Structures are given as structure tokens and as C-alpha cells.
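Sample entry (207 residues):
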Amino acid sequence: MGEHAGGSAGAAGQGGEERSLTEVLDRLAEAGEGERVRVNDVLDIFSDRSLGVLLSLFGLIAAIPLIGAIPGVSILTGSLVLIAIARSTFGRGALHLPGALGGKTMDRNKFHEALEKARPAVGRIDRVLSRRLGFLTEGWLPRMVISVAAALLAVSMYPLALVPWGVQAPAAGLVAFGLALMARDGLFALFGYALSGLTLYLILVFL
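Predicted structure, serialized as C-alpha cells:
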């Protein structure tokens, strides 16, 4: 039956690519040096990762309340998602932001506190990851459809940034799509599409 995502944790821990949200959090906690964490510190440490990891990463950052609530973060992460999708579709390119955008910082202690608060929920999500419904994630067409849906979620974060908690649905959708690609879990792709529908509803209602 399904191949549980936890079985690949050891490979990621030994230099392979992350296959769970917990591994993404662990990697994220290593970003940068000193008392503050810059946006480019995070981008540098994930610069060679696949689209699935990047969607999960940016969606998770926007979804964590202590981080995503910082003014401008949801718009920044939405922009990074679009850059990551462009990189994946048209070529590797640079995952690096110039000037004040890349230099935007957060206190390291608060950053780590936010990550730790997210761990229980992240762990529960990881435990249900499994390789299933492959027709929704494997092959160029399903991956292209996910990329388009993720791009629309990223764009929706611009207007929804004006709505209290408005970016939670698209951020969660990005995490779901990222996990679908990382673990080849078609059920999470379905979650992503459902959250895309919820995001469209929010836009129609609030805007």
C-alpha cells in the first residue's frame, strides 16, 4: 500500500533533499548566523532545493502566525513562490533578492520560537504523509497543473494581505502542494486544490 514519508527521513538527514515539513523546519533553523536572520540567509540555504520543498518552505513561512503576521512577509513569500515556479519551469536562475528585500531581517530568538511553536502541528501533518494517488503528482501534466495552481495562490496573497488572516488559506494550499510534490502524495494535492477553491471564495467575499 502507501509508502510512508517518514521512511525517507534518514536519507534527507544524510544530505538528501527534505521529504517532510519537520525536515524543512530543521533546515530552516540553520539559516544565517548572528542575532538576526535575513531573507537571503533562508534563500541561500534552500537555493538548490526542488519546487516541492520551496513551495512547502514559503507556504510554511506565511502560515506560521509569528512570522507570517509581520507586515510585508506574505507579499514577499508570494513573490518568492512565483520566482521559484519560474525557476522550475524555465531554468535554474538565482534564488536571491537584492537590496532591502533580501536584507529584511527577523530576530533569531523570535524566529526560532516561531519554528518551535509550529513543530507539533507540523509533526501531525508529517505522520499522515504517504505515497498514494500518484496520477495527481507524477508526470509533467499533474506537476504543471500544480505549478499553475500554486502560482495563482501566490498571486492571491497580494490582495488577501489586506484581510486579517486572509493569507492562511493560500499559504496552507502552498504547503499542501509542496508536500504533494515532495512525498508524491496525491491526497495532499487534493487538499491544495480544495484550499485553492477556498482562496477564490475569500477573494470574492472580501474583495
